[in-house]
Amino acid sequence: MTDPILAGSKGGGAKPPRPSVEAPDSLHSTAYARILDLVSEGEIVGLKNGKRSVFLNETPLANADGSLNFSGVSLETRNGSQDQTYIPGFPAVENESQVAVELRSDQPWTRAITNLQLSAVRIRLAVSRLAQTNTSNGDTNGYTVRYVIELSTDGGAFVEVLQSAFSGKSSSKYERSHRVDLPAAKAGWSVRVRRLTTNSSSGAIADTTSVESITDVIDAKLRYPGSAIIGLQFDASQFQSIPNRSFELQGRIIRVPSNYDPATRTYSGVWDGTFKSAWTDNPAWIYYDLLLHQRYGLGHLLNAAQVDKWELYRIGQYCDQPVSDGKGGTEPRFTCNLYLSVRADALKVLQDLATTFRGMAYWGAGSVMAVADMPEDPVYTYSNANVIDGKFVYGGSAKKTRYSVALVSWNDPADFYRQKVQYVDDPEGIARYGVQQTEITATGCTSQAQAQRIGKWALLTNRLETESVSFSVGLDGTLVRPGQVIRVADNDRAGRRIGGRLRSATLDALVLDADVKAYPGDTLTLIMPTGKAISRVIKSVGYPLTWDSTGITWDSGATTLDTTGFPAEVQRVVLEKKLEELPPVHSMWAIDSPTLAVQQFRVLSVAEDFSGSAIKYSISAVKHVAAKFAAIDNGARIDQPPVTVIPPSVQNPPKNVRVRNEHFVDQGSAVGVMTIDWERPDNAIAYEVHWRKNDGDWVFAGRTGGNAFEVSGIYAGRYVAKVRAINALDIGSVFATSVETVLNGKTTPPPMVASFNAESIVFGIKLKWSIPAGLSTADLQRTEIWYSQGSDVATATKFGDYAYPQTDLTIMGLASGATFFFWARLVDRIGNVGAYSKSVIGQASNDAGPILEYLSDKISSSQLSKTLLEKIESGGGSAVEIKALKDELNAMYTIKTQMMKDGRPYVAGIGVGVEDTPGGMVSQVLIAASTFAVVDPNSNEVKYPFVVENNKVYIDSLFIKDGAIDNAKIKGTIQSDVKDSLGRPLWMLDKNGGFSTNSAGVGGRIEQRADVIKVYDENNKLRVKIGNLSL
Length: 1031
Known about the structure:
By secondary structure, the protein is mainly beta. The chain has eight domains: 32-246, Jelly Rolls (Sandwich); 276-372, no CATH class; 398-464, Phage tail proteins - 2 layer sandwich fold (2-Layer Sandwich), CATH 3.30.1920; 468-543 and 568-627, Translation factors (Elongation Factor Tu (Ef-tu), domain 3); 655-743, Immunoglobulins (Immunoglobulin-like, Sandwich), CATH 2.60.40; 755-846, Immunoglobulins (Immunoglobulin-like, Sandwich), CATH 2.60.40; 862-955, no CATH class; 973-1027. The chain is 8% helix and 42% strand. It contains nine helices and 69 strands. The strands form 19 sheets. The protein has a six-stranded mixed β-sheet, with no helix packed on it. Strands 34-35-38-37-36-39 form a six-stranded antiparallel beta barrel. It is flat, with a radius of gyration of 47 Å. It starts with 31 loop residues before the first strand and ends with a strand. Mean pLDDT is 85; it is low at 563-569.
């Protein structure tokens, strides 16, 4: 055998694989977005800084140096003039709706169109990527997807509008739009897009198509006169979705005074009442424009003569005054920059806008009046001399409304006018009232400093102007109006005469109607014939003196006159500056001095009182502190002049407050009593008594007019009492405190109730308990009842407190079978609490008999039941009657049918009603019929799942979540709805008395009958048999 010989030679090398080739993209699309925004009612000034005032997704269109942040953007604006031209590039009104639904060959896309004003729709289709890969060599080439667009008019058949295809290669998203012109229609159209090319299931083909959007098109070159619009066109590839557009605008051109320069906020000369057109952010003139504008304001209801422009002129000047901006510069006191974009109640809008200048609006004397809280002089004086009965009634604001911290919401221009919150506090208010916070929305506020001033005004007004006054006058009530400031010279509050009527006058001296305490340098205010109040400084005061000097020879030396005993009913006041005209006799006067100022109030309302035959007006006003305005604008200190010289009353406290121990016997039991007594101080008419035990909290014992107080039923411990005295002005003294004293008393809390049980009643539970023997009314105060759905008292809620000697409680309105756990405990007269009783279970009756009897009586006694069962007076034959009844006690509606046979009426009917009964409101639906059934009208065959006949209910199939049954009979089986592994119910009871149970898993089972019990194991083998072994 020879060895095998292996031989070979070198062969040719294998060719390298050819690299795959990807064809270049042949599909390219550029989508342009064209958006026309309605930005305002015209005419407006326009964009504040040109393209720099246009923002796309909060990025400005142009920078300060003129460079653009977006390419391919064109911008056109129209400011809302009546003769403006249309914007080129917008030959139609279009509204695009996003769809973004995949278009599949097995699921066409359809959209109903109901807007009959449309000229066409534009459908934008897209393919996310279009390519086909050759699996043999890896080359990537184009692909074709065909589709068709169809249109149905007025519900007719779909007609093909166009057929096209995506053909080529695209490695990114490619979009295409098709315009579908809409023919005339009466009801509308339906447009449908179908994909003709079957969706590929191969990973080598990318052909996912989608319907991106549909655009409603109305062909029209609209100018939109009177509307400010901005048109934008840009390359949509720069955005993932339609960008948010924001525009910073100088808004509407409105009417402003002809002598007013809005740019410099200056007023030249005297205003003649005429207007010119200009842009302004002064809230007074924005308010005027809103009142009189025909389209968006109240111009269709008001005319210029019905608006008080002169008061608005004064308010407008106050708004324009420069104040600190908090950053080293100045700004106008009030500006208003806002969009009114939602229709709202006119009065609410006007009131909201008026808040920008701290004002309010009201209708009076046939005109719209605007008033503002700003510095102004009082217009009239009221004193005891011209007020009915000379009475002023004062009131004060609630403590809870005296805010010390304000959170003011304003719009920040540096953050796209988003709402910011400015924190403002009043340190003095916090020290007096603690932190009491209020939230304020500053309408049209775009300045942080203005928001600060608004908050400061609110806090100072709440703290300083807390008092109100009301009084009644005669015709003097017609001399003031809401918002004006008045003087109130109340002699009773001031403590001396500071106001009255003028007896006589010359141009430089006045004779008053009573003796007053006045000094040179004081200021006297007088009401002139025009109704205007003028003030003059007093030069001197004295009594008028006349005498007859006939027959008297004067010595050249000094002469001294003793004026003792001269009358004091009048006093003469000499003025430093003469009056321009004589005031009328009986004109009102008032005197201000550094030591006693006349009160000032701002009028809130003036109302005519028709309760009597005399002319009478009621005036309400709130305190006015003029010094607050300098504090708001400049942080100045507020000094309030005194308005009374009556010294504040000081009440001395009680003396020798003592605590001592006493006992008395009540029903055979000794009761401990703490007696607190003290010595009466001068001027005291009442006392407030507090006590505490063992360093606990102070307990308010009450208010008494005597000088002793008793607390019965005390416990042993250390006691301290404190008492303060109160005088006739309701001014209290400081507390006087006793020394700590050890007193004897009870050492145990109240015992548990002697018994506690619950009784079931229809729709309710009745609780009864008893009090342990030996407790008396002097010791026991009340019983607390607690309840819970669980048995743990820790989860219980107090049901109520029941004063001794009540020992029962009935709870009604419960569902039948409702179950609760109840506990009771006793509380003595000084608040000591006893232990809980053992829990008792209470259940509302679920016995069907009494419940049905109760409901039967309740239903049959109702007016609806009586009306439904009344016979129809028809005179024989058949009859139908429909009745509706509505009065103060009942609302009912009944339908009845009736037939007569053999002289006997047969009635069927239904009644719906609500009645006000002695037991409360009752809502019912009653059926009158011998047979009542529920029929399913939607079933293919007639079935009666629910029938009532002969006082019995027949139900074909029934599901009960939770039920209570007195008696039940079965004709088949009752069984569990849970099955074992062999499909047998886990338990079953049949009508013949058989009962079986099966294991839930792998296990045995039990069968039981009247005479035998069988037990099987998990292998179904009989293991136990008890009873008749032959079975």
